Amino acid sequence: MRIRDARVEDAAALTALLAELGYPDDLERVAARVGTFRGGASSLILVADEGDTLVGAASASVMPLLHEDGSWCRLSALVVAEGSRRRGVGRALVAALEARARAAGCRYLEVTSGERPGREAAHAFYEALGLEQVSRRYLKEL
């Protein structure tokens, strides 16, 4: 397994992975979003591939902090293909993301995960990686 930056050519596999995560989408829209991440220091998409097959993906954004030194890295999506779960793919993606975040001067890694049914395994996974639940999240659709 190899962890690397996503490419626009990965859009079809990423679209399928996002559907597994519960976010079905259109291939062209996913490809366009992947294109906005490429080359940016503040946002990234990492993928795990095994040969020609994508088995996982993670996206994150780095945000500078006003109230203290450093930045905050927010993991916005993490998905591992159903047939590849429990093989270390998610851990490898998060470890690679943490290394990138540290290199970018981040002090924190943040993950939000909804309370909808079926998310219990994801919550246990994040806690096993050393993340802890620390706050509420408020959201307003614009």
Question: Would you kindly provide a written description of the structure presented here, covering whatever features stand out?
Answer:
The protein is an alpha+beta fold. It has a single domain (2-128), classed as Gcn5-related N-acetyltransferase (GNAT) (Aminopeptidase, 3-Layer(aba) Sandwich), CATH 3.40.630.30. The chain has helices spanning 11-21, 27-37, 89-103, 120-128, and strands at residues 2-5, 43-50, 53-64, 71-80, 106-111. The protein has a 5-stranded mixed sheet. Helix 1 crosses helix 2. The longest helix is centred in the C-terminal third of the chain and has 15 residues, at 89-103. The radius of gyration is 15 Å and the shape is globular.
List the helices and strands and how they pair.
Blueprint: E1 2-5, H1 11-21, H2 27-37, E2 43-50, E3 53-64, E4 71-80, H3 89-103, E5 106-111, H4 120-128
Parallel strand pairs: 4-5
Antiparallel strand pairs: 1-2, 2-3, 3-4
